Amino acid sequence: MRRNRAEAAGLAIGAVADAAFGDPRRGHPVALFGSAVARLERRVYADARPAGAVFAGGWIAVAVAVGALARRTGPAGTAAATFTALGGTSLCRIGDDIAGALESGDVDRARRLVSGLVGRDPDLLDESGICRAAVESIAENTSDAAIAPLLWGAVAGAPGLLGYRAVNTLDAMIGYRSDRYRNFGWAAARIDDAANLAPARMTAVAAALVSGRPVTVWRAVRRDAGAHPSPNAGVVETAFAAALGIELGGRTVYPHGVEDRPRLGDGRAPLASDLRAAVVLSRRIQRLSAVVAVAVRLAVGRQLR
């Protein structure tokens, strides 16, 4: 019980720290982790699923072990793990910066900023395309960078926080359908899909509640989400589209090819004002989820007792 109270306190402290400061510009532990992953990949890469599975599993095990060590240090360790795993505040700041650039007519700056959120070619995006890309990324990353870490932290403490962050980082690095990673990154992508099944749906529920449009969001998710190639991105993107009264999806150009994404939601194409609204929605969802995560961690402790 004492450990669970300590971890609940650490979750709360870490969430408040992320809300106040966002990601550090230099020396972020996730960036250091990514650099280590990239260096090892260059040495051990093989175009085979088993090799990729061992690679992903090994790094996830390392992250879980580091989380277990952090948990032994008390609330400070869990707070550090929470701050490391969360990225919602920086996500929202970038969203606001993109909207501000578009509102001032600086499309080139908006393209540069959105390139840090999505893997699309920013030079091919007009103002509407930039808004759509940014809203879709904010929707997906509200789940990936905020709700999912909080959920795994609520369930498994610091090991869950850092283990999940490793899963998501590996997916972002090698979980592509490109020629290089179709086999090597297969396991990383599938593990990430499994780890985000519950968080994505919790994000959709939170979007429905926070927006005050539960029936509209529920109907849109049931109708549109299953057509998306991702079992999780489709859920959260549809929920945000319905909550904001806009339409997402459509032709999407990636470095590895062009994908015709399904249309999600009903309404017009997003504008800069909708991007602002998406940021507000994301922030509200994050705050609600942080409170719920702390409460769940305390409840887990009472149940174990």
Give keywords:
74% helix
Task: Write a structural description.
The protein is mostly helical and 305 residues long. It has one domain (2-304). The protein has 13 helices and 2 strands, in the order H-H-H-H-H-H-H-H-H-H-H-H-E-E-H. The protein has helices at residues 2-21, 29-44, 49-71, 75-85, 88-103, 107-114, 127-174, 181-184, 186-195, 197-211, 214-224, 233-244, 272-304, and strands spanning 251-254, 257-260. Strands 1-2 form a two-stranded antiparallel ribbon. Helix 4 packs across helix 7 (127-174) and helix 5 packs antiparallel against helix 6. It is globular, with a radius of gyration of 19 Å. The termini are close together.
Radius of gyration: 19 Å
The largest sheet, given as strand count, sense and whether it forms a barrel, is: 2 strands, antiparallel
Mean pLDDT: 92
The computed structural class is mainly alpha
Helix content: over 70%
Strand percentage: under 5%
Q: Count every beta strand, where a strand is a DSSP E run of 2 or more residues.
A: 2
Mass-distribution shape: globular
Compressed to H and E, one letter per element, the order equals HHHHHHHHHHHHEEH
Q: What is the number of domains? A: 1
Task: Enumerate the strands of the largest sheet in spatial order, edge to edge or round the barrel.
Answer: 1-2
Total of DSSP H or I helical runs spanning 4+ residues: 13
Enumerate the spans where pLDDT stays under 50 for 5 or more consecutive residues.
Answer: none
CA distance, first residue to last residue: 6 Å
Keywords: Cell membrane, Cobalamin biosynthesis, Membrane, Transmembrane, Transmembrane helix
Subcellular location: Cell membrane
InterPro entries: Cobalamin_biosynth_CobD/CbiB (IPR004485)
Family: Belongs to the CobD/CbiB family.
